[in-house]
Write the structure tokens for this entry.
Amino acid sequence: MSLSELAVIALAAILTSIIGGVAGYGTGLLMPLVLVPILGAQVVVPILGVSAIFNNLSRISAFRRAIAWSHVWRITLVAMPFCYIGATFYSFLTGPGASILIGATLILLVPARRMLKSFQTDLPPSMVLVAGALFGLVTGGVPGGGVILISLLMAVGLKGPAIVATDAVISLMVGFVKIGTFQAYGQLPASSWAIAALIGLVSLPGAFLAKWISENISLKVHHGLMDGAVVLGGSVLLLRGLGLT
């Protein structure tokens, strides 16, 4: 990798950490648009799994007073085994297969976020468990699973900082399962750990800046722009995996 490519990755990590800290999601959706052209699709999910540890720790530190622990335990316990299944499946994909999976998932998660947003606080406990299992499966195999988790936390009645904080704790715990699975299947060589550490370290200040921004900005336009970027980038990745670009 050249220094210019490392600089692009570092800049993207800073920007997406701020976006993720404001919206509660976005890092896993936007970083693949930068990482796949530089590193290839197959290494993206393992690298983002490691870098997410830094990002989630910074969010927990910034929003620690707002964590809803009852929801943390309920969702985490059901998500963990399904995360293992998703990560195991991803470990056996080829480069084009990984590109197709990531691209298709990014595109589908945009309407999924809008649909899940319609749920209110009357979500029954059984549906919470089903949604938690779906989150685990998706987050184990592709980036962007945070869309499902954020929508689920909104559906059980959490708001504002409580969503960001609770999402960070759940994602951190489930992330350890994902990292362990990728490491066991040889998907995390030393080079991937190094790139993940770079992404994670430069993104640490983003959560604290995001905390300030979240108190002074509306997310409506931000969500629209991010959805457009994700659909466009996902389409490019999908076409590349199919050999059409």
Summary: The mean pLDDT is 79.
